[in-house]
Amino acid sequence: xxxxxxxxxxxxxxxxxxxxxxxxxxxxxxxxxxxxxxxxxxxxxxxxxxxxxxxxxxxxxxxxxxxxxxxxxxxxxxxxxxxxxxxxxxxxxxxxxxxxxxxxxxxxxxxxxxxxxxxxxxxxxxxxxxxxxxxxxxxxxxxxxxxxxxxxxxxxxxxxxxxxxxxxxxxxxxxxxxxxxxxxxxxxxxxxxxxxxxxxxxxxxxxxxxxxxxxxxxxxxxxxxxxxxxxxxxxxxxxxxxxxxxxxxxxxxxxxxxxxxxxxxxxxxxxxxxxxxxxxxxxxxxxxxxxxxxxxxxxxxxxxxxxxxxxxxxxxxxxxxxxxxxxxxxxxxxxxxxxxxxxx
Length: 344
Known about the structure:
The protein is an alpha+beta fold. It has a 6-stranded antiparallel β-sheet with strand order 11-14-15-21-17-18, with no helix packed on it. Strands 12-13-16-20-19 form a 5-stranded antiparallel β-sheet. The chain has a 4-stranded antiparallel β-sheet with strand order 5-4-8-9, with no helix packed on it. The termini are far apart. The chain has helices spanning 4-48, 273-276, and strands at 57-64, 83-84, 89-96, 109-115, 127-130, 136-141, 147-150, 152-155, 168-169, 176-179, 181-186, 193-197, 212-218, 226-233, 247-252, 265-271, 286-289, 297-298, 314-323, 329-335, 339-343. It has 2 domains: 57-177, Immunoglobulin-like, CATH 2.60.40; 181-343.
């Protein structure tokens, strides 16, 4: 005999098994689609969170400080950055991937700061940090000694091999000078202004130890409420100094249009006899630049006492220049614009 009840049970079980298989197929497909959706959501969340790819290069962006030129100073006369020896300045860099898109390190990364100023005058501190997830970094450092045409390089020395990152190097228009001294003096239009820097008693006299100093005389004052006076490093190339013992003098202010040819402003340059005592006054050359970071060139002679030529912005008044009883040279530079000055 055949057990019909068992057959029916077996048949029912097989039918249920087929139904379950039929039901499982769309469930598996739905689960697969859900998994893909979760992955997509995860990717979109990552993109939305702004997490960029890893960097392959550092870009040098700028050097800056809190020091600024007086309001109204002609833009071409303003240095790229006003930096003083022993005072902090900031270096800003950014990070990019192979496609030139902003990028960030996945963890805090040490950055190294170096300059072309020689082993005895390297930045302190010489390192900074690129923080994880940031596409830029600002590093604070100092240079202890004056320097000219400083070029900064920022690198990531701990990253090597396939993880290496190209360093960021300042371009030619991002070079700056490090001053030895800087002062701001109050000024006003119509109020005579006189202020000196260097030497003894603000350039009452030059000395063998500090042989070049300057006194700025503005009979009509300045439009700007302040005048910046500074001194920088003398070298025989960029600054065109006759001796590295001297100084490059600089003044910045808004004096545009205040000083006609027959009534110019004056920078009285005192040069101690140890540097300028062996040559005739007429052979002493003052070098100048009207630009903030350009090399200095010889200033022409004035056509007459206390007079600028029609096409001159700067000239040396050899008629009034003289040598005092101590043997120091007193050189009168007539100007109608901001300038940087050296002696050769």
